[in-house]
Design brief:
single chain; alpha/beta; inorganic pyrophosphatase (n-terminal core); Diaminopimelate Epimerase, Chain A, domain 1; 3 domains; six-stranded parallel β-sheet; five-stranded mixed β-sheet; 22% strand
């Protein structure tokens, strides 16, 4: 009898938790609809589960026409996640998030001119009034709104868990509405919406459930890839004790949205197939280096894929190996043909400044890694133009 009673209590508690979670998820959905500028903050800058989930959310919010940024300190970011596409802005530090306004009452004394002047440790604002003096009661100094109107934290048990980021920007965290996602039972109720699912193995699994339920029509292969990466990385490819059958079921669901498990495993765990090694060898045999521009590049021909049995999805891995084994270079490029026979340039640099001219030429946003479709332009011409552009 006691066991039956305990089981009923457990079922009732689980039902209550589920109802509370559903209410919180509805709140999350409503807040997202009204938010316009969103900042996503993973608690850890190196946790694969948190980072890949942040990418999935940011890519989704961009599709919802939300201006979205992810806090992403470069020094902590694991390079193994570089294969995930990022259609959003990443920021390395929280600065310049709020303007302060100097407001003049010009009812009795018009302002004719305002100039600013910078000196050592000083910024001087020169104001020229119509009359000789300004009454101190006619101007005020007030803070404007923050650049963001919503914060989303991932994996934080409390605000202090965010460390120096929180302590240096406490006003931001207190004044803006916050949504927090966590799987830890120790999570405090510090956010406006605090969604905690202790049954989920990872934050990626937790958000996959929510996003597939509430935003399914917006889930594309890129978002699915980010979510599956979070689950695989967070469970160490389902080897951790926290992995459950639900984790594997969710992984299978995401693969129906074209998430590529093989690519994720290769990037996270660096396994290399015989086909990949054959392709790598062929590409390395054509490797070229320009000392002046510090550009190292090569090309993959269509017959390389046929003879090696490799796939075009192996190209980013080859480029990564070139980067890893040639530290003297600053820019790394691979030219190859897609299934239509079009020439594709995949290029990355240690600093996006090296690609500025290239981005200007093709009218694309300057990033440290690019993939450009050059239609049917011959590889030899592309190589020549690339060198000329980068050396300018």
């Amino acid at each position: 009898m006691k066991n039956q009673s305990d089981e009923k209590i457990k079922q009732k508690v689980n039902k209550t938790i589920l109802i509370v979670m559903q209410e919180q998820i509805s709140q999350f959905e409503n807040i997202i609809q009204s938010g316009k500028k969103i900042l996503i903050i993973p608690q850890s800058g190196s946790d694969i589960d948190q980072l890949a989930t942040a990418f999935a959310l940011a890519n989704l919010f961009q599709k919802l026409d939300k201006q979205t940024s992810v806090f992403l300190p470069t020094e902590k970011f694991p390079k193994k996640l570089s294969f995930l596409k990022r259609n959003f802005l990443s920021i390395e530090k929280l600065s310049g998030l709020r303007d302060f306004l100097i407001i003049f009452n010009t009812e009795k004394n018009e302002i004719l001119k305002i100039k600013t002047e910078k000196k050592e440790n000083q910024t001087i604002i020169r104001v020229t009034p119509e009359k000789e003096t300004i009454d101190p009661r006619d101007f005020s100094f007030v803070p404007a709104s923050y650049e963001y109107d919503l914060l989303i934290t991932l994996g934080a048990e409390n605000l202090e868990h965010l460390g120096q980021l929180y302590f240096s920007n406490s006003d931001l965290f207190y004044e803006l509405p916050k949504i927090n996602f966590s799987v830890s039972p120790r999570t405090e109720n510090f956010a406006l919406v605090n969604i905690v699912d202790v049954t989920a193995s990872t934050i990626g699994e937790m958000l996959s459930n929510i996003l597939l339920d509430k935003f399914e029509k917006f889930i594309d292969p890129n978002i699915a890839q980010c979510l599956l990466t979070a689950i695989i990385g967070g469970t160490d490819s389902f080897k951790k004790a926290t992995a459950t059958p639900a984790s594997m079921i969710m992984a299978a669901r995401l693969m129906k949205y074209q998430a590529d498990q093989a690519t994720i495993i290769r990037y996270l765990y660096k396994t290399k197939s015989i086909a990949f090694l054959k392709l790598w060898g062929k590409i390395m045999s054509r490797l070229k280096y320009d000392e002046k521009t510090q550009l190292i590049w090569s090309s993959a021909l269509q017959e390389d894929f046929i003879q090696s049995g490799a796939l075009q999805s192996d190209i980013p891995f080859v480029l990564e190996e070139i980067e890893k084994n040639h530290s003297s270079a600053q820019i790394f490029a691979l030219l190859f043909f897609n299934s239509k026979g079009e020439t594709i340039l995949k290029i990355k640099a240690n600093d996006k400044k090296y690609l500025a001219k290239l981005c200007e030429q093709y009218e694309i946003e300057n990033q440290s890694e690019l993939e450009i479709n050059l239609k049917f332009k011959p590889i030899e011409i592309v190589e020549k133009e690339l060198l000329e552009l980068i050396s300018k």
